[in-house]
Design a protein that fits this description.
The chain is mainly beta and 276 residues long. The mean pLDDT is 95. β19 and β20 form a beta hairpin. It is globular. The strands form 5 sheets. The protein has a 7-stranded mixed sheet with strand order 1-3-4-11-6-9-12, with no helix packed on it. 5% of the residues lie in helices and 42% in strands. It has a single domain, classed as Jelly Rolls, CATH 2.60.120.
Length: 276
Amino acid sequence: MQIRHAISPQETASLNSQGLRDHFLIENVCAPAALQLVYSHYDRVIIGGVSPLGEGVVLPNYDALKSEYFLERREMGVINVGGEGSITVDGQNFDLPRLSCLYIGRGAKNVEWHSKNPAEPAHFFLLSAPAHAVYPTKLMLKEAATPVTMGATETANNRTIYKYIHADGLASCQLVMGLTILHPGNVWNTMPPHVHDRRMEAYFYFDIPDNQRMLHLMGEPQETRNIWVANHQAVISPPWSIHAGCGTHNYGFIWGMAGENQQFTDMDFQPVEVLR
């Protein structure tokens, strides 16, 4: 498990492209048959993923957590963006079709990811945060995720938002998770952008063709930076940073948050005209 420390807006403003990538981009999230995890000191979240093949992939423990098992003091949200998959939690099996979400509560000791068909593996993205309360492990299919369509083709941001782990959905201690699907011909997400200094966020991009890319915008509104992102890569977004972007093709992305509150609408919008 890789450890990444938090840095300030002033330090970020001085970074070149490689420096930005080193601090904020997670390039290899869904590795075949190997769990990939990054521990971020922004709200101490753990970001990662896995694409199981023939055998299941077991959640290990890590010395860095100083715990008896991974979820002793943590909760986890998992969303599948690939083929049919399943997750076994303490002996209970949960089938996860594409775009479904499983919340795993604090105290779960044994977690294992599986793909139904190794030729069409599941691609699981996960986010874990410290938890001070126990909520039940529970599955939500995308049809139950209160989809809302926003934006317009005229502004190239017509999209559908699915909310899974939030105050009115799957209950959690502090996690908030969902995903957004850009409709064909639309490329902009989260515009105008926003910040929320009460919580950090992670973006995981998927359904980007191999020869296309996503331009992720970050930084303070008056001091923006950008990172070019490929399919199945993730960006760590600090609480002080905007998180918006434009693709060379329509795409989908998972957004996950942790911090002081769980209010999905807690956003400080930044008008387009103030961006620099």
